[in-house]
Amino acid sequence: MKNESNAEFKLGKAPLSADQYLDIFRKSSALLEGHFLLTSGKHSAQYMQCAQVLQYPERAAILAEGLASVFRDLEIQTVIGPATGGILVSHEVAKALGVRSLFTERENGIMRLRRGFTLSPGERVLVVEDVITTGGSVREVLSVVREFEAIPVGVGVLVDRTGGTVDFGLPQSSIIQLEIQAYEAQECPLCAQGIPAIKPGSRKL
User: Fold this and answer.
1) 57: enclosing H helix or E strand
2) Which of 4, 64, 109, 166 could pair with 27 in a Cys bridge, judged by C-beta atoms 3.0 to 4.6 Å apart?
3) In total, how many domains does the chain have?
4) The pTM is what?
5) What 3-state DSSP class applies to 158?
6) How far apart, in Å, are the Cα atoms of 59 and each of 22, 107, 113?
7) Residue 4 lies in a domain
């Protein structure tokens, strides 16, 4: 498939509109249609594959700048996101804010800081993610931050699939809000039709 040119996407000082951000995702073939098994365990007919847009550094920078602009006045010292979807988001948002970037990983099923990463008590931390459906991974990262007695000051995500219904009890923002229907496996109409589900994400269940 021919890649869209990056020439039409330019990093500017002002955040783009929600429609403009969504257009970047569409032109990056990031919005998929089918039968998908989500990280949360739920099923959906649509999937936002952020890796398809993040593979283009210029586009990733535009999205990150838009997200960073919301939190720029919160005196953030570190940005952190869960592996693997949050790694590039954390790096790009941290770059836009001029601070360091960390990521968490699962070890024996438990979210942790590894690779010698650490946080200091009182350190002001922004938690980021590529896509949220239930917010489970973000809550795990928030727990890690608090274990180090650092201070989570906000949550930023590229795509909020819940339409803004998930509340982390902190200032939060998303580049795009979508209300994409997700089903429990036993209630999935696509399963009832015998359509095989695929898992497009990176985490194995």
Assistant:
1) helix 57-71
2) 4
3) 1
4) 0.81
5) strand
6) 12, 31, 28
7) no
